[in-house]
């Protein structure tokens, strides 16, 4: 027998002639890097994205959108559009038979604008035609007479401006008061911070297909991340019972937010119901930028008080979030921002006011780490300022104030979950720093700006920065978190039925691993998602790992009991004395040994279960309350090279330590962390959907820069703390949101260290990274 290495340290054996080598079954179950089941389909181009769907007799849709951020609609003339050859129908607000309002959190957004448009790109009408070009031409032929109004685009002016919406301009105000508001510290630092408008920039086109049903209902095929909510919104708009509307989830090409603009689905459904034909719409990239929700631009004013030793005494903050034209999930984002405004630090006194207001800017809503990311950039900036004022190292002042299990949030809630924040910070601090680039021509690409960036090696300064971030798990403030799952086993195959949408988080892989671990069945299929199944809730805040994964585990354990009870009864023992491993059932004493398939004996076993975490409560009038089920934490050290003359920045390395509870799939977990860090890097250095008086500038991927593989730094995950949360199924915590929250603050901290500049705006502008006196 000979051996060879595969280059990764593993050795493969080549048997001699006639020698039989037993084939080891592939590893499965929790803790294993099981590959995604949909990986072959995605790599081969056969994955069923919504933009690829087709139906017999298909019509194409197009939407007319407002060119103004704010205007009064005087008239809508659809005559020329209706008369165009190939056009089947044109719909406006007059054709909406049910509730005209919709929205993920608050139903204040019209399907089509009626009397007034409130943001650039708001839908006014939709067309169905026999060709996509015809539909677009017909939409352009709709004549709308506007009276252009003065747009309110500064959220600070929204308080005194005339109402932009019947519900007013103020969506929510949270006045948080914790401890003694009159206490002051020996040392005080202030800061003003601005966070830009980050677009979720979904990889694939936002698209959908609506098909009318014989019973007068409609089926909508789309990449929804919350199909039951979308179904209920659609049914209300169409004037139908929820049972008459079915949402079928197609392949989701990644989602870091709500993914689909619900307005697309509503327009499609109306057109299908009016024409009696299937109708398809694939939004352009420009339409996506104009219509779906973005990260809330936020203005933050902070004042930190500390004693002479650097211990925090009080935090004062004002947080103003720009919700855009409609409320969406802004109330939830504001609650997270206010609750985490002091960060993972012990703060005995806090006075925080948070507001979310309507403007005529593009809509804001759920984007990964909403609320928490904005305040993390601010409170970490304050910690850097405090360290500089006291002559301390940035990591030292953080360690002096760090939060642990048993401490209180400024909302009065006790941190009962594992909070190994000090361990995380120490891990990134003690990791070796990357080497400096050599002063050689072949290393010019390592300079900020690259070899053509006109930079000089002598102007480059290296900075090292730190950031600690936190997010909440699941919904908050009394949200009823529940998911239902069914597990069936027949022969040697198991099937999971659960309406939890796979958004790229790896949940469908986790579902397979849970069943493999519990039942010992290697072949596990996860059924497609539609609204005929019981609801599982939205795919955000790590919900499906906890709630849907918990439901699947409970259902699988119920099937396991059904499988083992007859055997246990036959051999006079309890089911706890039987084990299932690799498809085999054995007893503790070795008397019983059989396979799962033999034990089933041709029967099909199934069970349905629910998982519902313990309830939370809304914040009261003082911002107090047990609003969160659990928390997750992350520490990142950023090393960045900055050309202090040009302001160009190159992030060299991001060193990450994260509180994960339990590693369920190592490869998948690391990929999620790396993706989160990279998304945060985009928010720190380049991503900002720019507007001029409410008008979106360059709504395309030329004008909106995203980080590519060339921008991504080395990401070193030096520690994953597996301190299991006892109330969470499997003890695991969400993985992708907290690095998104933490990495922008770490980048800003590193640039501060390199330049000595305050860096209060994200993304960081080149002029902000030019050191004082560097150009003199």
TrEMBL record:
Region (Disordered): 1-30
Aldehyde oxidase/xanthine dehydrogenase a/b hammerhead domain residues: 44-150
SMART domains: Ald_Xan_dh_C (SM01008)
Family matches, as InterPro entries: Ald_Oxase/Xan_DH_a/b, Ald_Oxase/Xan_DH_a/b_sf, Ald_Oxase/xanthine_DH-like, AldOxase/xan_DH_MoCoBD1, AldOxase/xan_DH_MoCoBD2, AldOxase/xan_DH_Mopterin-bd_sf
Low complexity bias: start-end ranges: 7-19
Pfam families in the record: Ald_Xan_dh_C, MoCoBD_1, MoCoBD_2
GO MF annotations in UniProt: iron ion binding; oxidoreductase activity
Protein name listed in UniProt: Oxidoreductase
Organism: Streptomyces inhibens
